[in-house]
Amino acid sequence: MAISDDVSKNGSSEVVVRDMYLADLEAVMGIEAHSFPTPWSRNAFQTELLENTFATYLVLDFHGRVVAYGGMWIILDEAHITNVAVHPDYRGHHLGQQMMEGLMDRARALGVQRMTLEVRRGNAVAQNLYHKLGFVQLGVRRGYYTDTHEDAFIMWKDPL
User: Fold this and answer.
1) CA distance 83 to 57
2) Which one of 24, 32, 99, 123 has the largest count of C-beta atoms within 10 Å of its C-beta?
3) Residue 10 belongs to what H/E stretch?
4) Which InterPro entries does this entry report, sorted A to Z (predicted)?
5) E strands along the chain, which residues?
6) Using CA atoms, how far apart are residues 154 and 156, in angstroms rounded to an integer?
7) Checking DSSP bridges between strand 55-62 and strand 78-86, what pairing results, if any?
């Protein structure tokens, strides 16, 4: 049985949203490498987890396996999504939505009033998800992604 078949069969109700720990970094780095042209380094994630007091990182845990992760910086009453990714074997099962909902729930619990993110102009799947969750595009950062010089759409959800 394929990994993704297991999620389909059992549903996302068996997927748990929890805090990211250093022990999760091997799995997170694998997801990161499969998801982004220029992945973050292990050291970048360690710094986020251990030193950045603004940072909150969560994972989706499916039977002990990290299948997705997401992070945000919380500054006053705003949250800025830093990254969200789902392991390729688990895509297409609404886990990106579950990860975003987990981040939004945590942000609300911490008193956040609004949330922002950047998304690549060419990432229509993510843009559709963010629109579905109530985000609206309010700007463009030209050439934002240094690896490809692709534009980023700035999206906001206000109120959260």
Assistant:
1) 9
2) 99
3) helix 3-10
4) AcTrfase_RimI/Ard1, Acyl_CoA_acyltransferase, GNAT_dom, YpeA/RimI_acetyltransf
5) 15-19, 55-62, 65-75, 78-86, 114-120, 136-141, 152-157
6) 7
7) unpaired
Separation of alpha carbons 151 and 141, rounded Å:
6
| Positive or negative: CA dihedral 9, 12, 13, 14 | positive
Q: Which residues pair with 86 in a beta bridge?
A: 68
Note the pLDDT of residue 7.
58
Residue position matching structure tokens 């997401």: 70
- pTM comes to 0.92
Measured in degrees and rounded to the nearest 5, phi and psi for residue 36 equal -130, 140
Residue 42 has pLDDT above 50, yes or no: yes
Active-site residues: which are they?
Answer: 118, 130
List the strands of the sheet with 15-19, edge to edge.
15-19, 55-62, 65-75, 78-86, 114-120, 152-157, 136-141
